[in-house]
Amino acid sequence: MGPSTHGPAESPRPRARRITPRLAAAALAFASAAVPLAASAPPAQAAASQEIVIPATNRITPLEDTPVVAGTTGFLHQQEGKDGYLWTDYATGASTTLTGTVLSAPVRSSVAQPADSESEAIAIYPTPGKGVDWYGLVDPHTGERHDVQLPPGVSVRGFVADKVLAAHGRIPTAPEPEAVLVDIRQGTVEPLPVTGLPQGAELTARTLIDGVADDQGALIQYQDGGGFHYGLLDAVTGVVTPTPAVPVVYNLRLYLTPDRFAWWTPGDSTMHWVPRDDPSATPRDFTFPKSSAPVTLVGDTVLTASPAPGSTLGSKLTALPLDGGEAKVLLDHVASAYATGLEAADGSVLIAGGSGDDWAVRRFTQSAGEVSQKVILPLSITTTKSEVVGLSLFRGTLNTIADLDGALSLHQQDVGTTTTPTANPVTLEPAGMPSSVVRCATGSACVRVADGPRDGGVHYLYTDSTGLTYLQSGPVESTHVPGTGGQIRDASDEYVVVDGGSPKTQYIVKPSAFDVTRSRPVQAAAVWYDTLWSASTSSPGTLIAELNPDSATAGTPSRTVKTGVACVPTELQATARWLYWWCGDGKQAGVYDLWNGRGFGVPSGQSMLGDGYVVRHDRTAGELKLTDFHTGGPAAERTIADLPAGSLSDDRRITWTVDKYGGHIAYVDGEDRVHVLADGVPNSMPVIARNGDADEVVPRSKDTYAAHWNGDLYLSRPVDSWELTIVNQISKSEVATFKGGALRGPSPVGHGWPGTGVIPDSGSYTWELTVKYDGGTLPINVGSGVLHVSCGRLLTHVYDCDGIPDLLAVRSDGKTDSWTGLSTGGLHNDGLTATWPATSTLVPIGDLNNDGYADLLVRDSTGNVRAYWGKDGQTGPSPSNASAAIGTGWNKYNVLTSPGDLSDDGRADLVTRDTAGDLWLHLANDDDTFDAPVKIGSGQGGYTAMVGMGDLNGDGVGDLLARDTAGDLWRLPGADKRFAAKVKISSGFSGYNAFVGIGDLTQDGKNDLLARDTAGSLYLWAGTGTGGFGGRTTISTGWNTYKTLV
Q1: Is 843 exposed, middle or buried (0-12, 13-18, 19+ CB in 10 A)?
Q2: The domain made up of 807-1045 is a member of CATH 2.30.30
Q3: β-strand partners of 407
Q4: Is residue 135 within 8 Å of 156, Cβ to Cβ?
Q5: In this structure, is the dihedral angle defined by the CA atoms of residues 554, 555, 559 and 563, taken in order, positive or negative?
Q6: Does domain 687-789 have CATH number 1.20.58?
Q7: What pLDDT is recorded for position 34?
Q8: Which residues fall within 8 angstroms of residue 654, CB to CB, at 6 or more apart?
Q9: Which residues does UniProt assign to the signal peptide (predicted)?
Q10: Quick count: other Cβ atoms within 10 Å of Cβ 289?
Q11: What are the tens digits of pLDDT across the range 888-916?
């Protein structure tokens, strides 16, 4: 079955790490003094009018039908103009309406046929109003739902065949190592353990891959060793068989049939597949024409879609046998809602399409090598006269709500964001809008929608069959709102402000969390991404902003603005730069420039804020009028269109609207034609309106979100292209660059970094985002920030996860203080962190076991050496840490030190010197220990100190420092598993009794040296990067209280 589009598992929003919003560079202080209203500037020269007119035409298109899920006896779907869901029987074509059934996201559904039943059931989870251990079984013939609770300690992860996949643990989004298959009716058989996963593997948040399942099993995703993998789950035995050849990459399309498992990546003209009974086999390839793309698999035949030039009815559907047989056209056109097919558990596939009058939902099956089809549900082609009852403009997309003979439909049309509007083809949202949508006024057909859902579409209110009110946000997010009726006051991608009808209460809704985060009295309010603006009711003329109004800091002002007028606004509207306020009919209105900290007055009346202007409907004159203030002050108001006042007291977003993100204005004339006007105002420069990601990455984390930085940078307006670069702050090297084309939104800029298997250095990085917009050729910097990589690739002499070197200071009694490195180049004493036997010798060895944490070699008084493994939250291991034996008889060595990597395998190696003066190399290996020592030098006994330094000259190989009896300092340059001829660095080092190759303490990309003199003063020599050091600087005194420094 398939296809399904998947990459590594994702966690639900919001992320459970700290979020640091990035403000635009032009944003000023978070408090502003009162600024008097500025006088109007001289009239601006109006730009030449540029307009398109979209005629009110009859719609001659097939009835829209949206598939939900398919069984073996029927399928669940939605149909344009009908409320609720329909269950249609394959054999008879009869349809039953399931009134009251709500399957909107995050509810996921499947069709299951329990072993003890002759009929199918629609299985859904989570069950509305219940916990993660509940699911529901809906009778497709009656809509009756039976809720079932799983045994204690498990949560639903999905459905396969007649079973529920349940993972141990109460958090459905957390990785879990164990799972069971539970009979969907429960009690008939004992839970079946899921086995076959590699040792230590964990099921991901989205264990079952949507749409890739049948009555025998399903594809699942798991993580192992920080990476993601797929496996085939046998629903009968519970055994998971890994599929090692399948990559876990973004946008991968997956298909499962009774005989094979296949995958394909968009942009590639080759499908890969393996036999289902041998998923570890070498994949076989099937190449299809580059002009087509796979829709689904039916048996051993690929169904592909290819362009149908000159037609708006959809792509052509063609059958291509995997054995290379002759291609066969199955349908002239395929409905867009069925563009990926709807697969049933028995291997059949539902696709809607036809040539014209024969348009229908069809069931495709394969028998004797041939694909056949049966008409299940004819879909009429209609000619419909429409009336516009609602209007919105969002980032160049015109949303028109049309009343089509009593049924509401949402039409979307791209009108562009450039200077001149363009009329591109219209698309129809397949499911339409429910007839129970809340109207804008009693006795009127009008529907006031709001812009901004992150998944496209619009926000609107509707009531269900029980009278409950819901906020629908785009195609999938539906949130219950208390009370009845109401209107949407303002909306963004993150929050929606709803003024309830009864009771008169204002609700702040977060659609992505399906939650009403706050209730309060109705008041002036506006939202711009994650910022909520409110008008103070106790301090007239005071406007208050707060960030993330559902967070722990909710209610805490992030900025306060004074309008300079002693009235309480009844209305607010906001963009990145402008804040519009109005105190009501006959009272003052104004705009505040958030970037420059000044306010000015504008004409009073029902208005909508644009990008550097405001449009007012002068109902007396019957005109739309525009005030341009993009330069920072208002020009004289000018008329842009004739629009007579209608019967509605407020016709905004009904008969006219403004695109504050993209720069156009639209209105409806008396013949239901939609006019889209260029505003004639220069577009503002894009800024980062919201940074929805954290500023820390833990690349070794098993939490997918914690292990990657996805960017999630939301732009204030559309752009032509963008480029995001990430630079290491120390090396100044560019470690990643991501590029993208036109971005209209509301999708964010961002790509997962680091990629799979890439472990960047611990430390700080700078990201920078540049864009091109409005046809410009030069990139514009719109924002930058700092990103921290924690527990990444371990750097020289770093004991914790921050990328800055640290120091362990051991007293004569073995008590050890940890000194953590500071970004300023100093050290901070964290106090006592470990106590070792007084006779122990401590040797830093980097990350010997390759787990990302610093390890420590410890030799005891008998000559035994153990490796103590580092762990998170420590600055250096302690004796209680897990450890492993390295060897015995090491008392023959009087020097043990790690110069870093001498073998170019990424591991730090060990060098020792014996009492005869011979130098030995111990290469680190994959067994978390060392190979047998290899002699690499002799005659080294004359050095009174030898210390590993890491790479001193930038060649990527570790080096060694040695001091001779004359006090001269020598560098032994690392080479291929040896040291090259020594190089004298300096002299006069006789007075020092401790040396430490501290790594890059100065944070300039060059390894440094620490040394303590006999008086106890600690000094730093900054590395030059060419093998030497600069002048000496003092760190501090009093270090003679320590026996050794490591």
Answers
A1: buried
A2: no
A3: 404
A4: yes
A5: positive
A6: no
A7: 32
A8: 389, 390, 391, 440, 446, 447, 448, 648
A9: 1-46
A10: 12
A11: 999 999 999 999 999 999 899 999 999 99
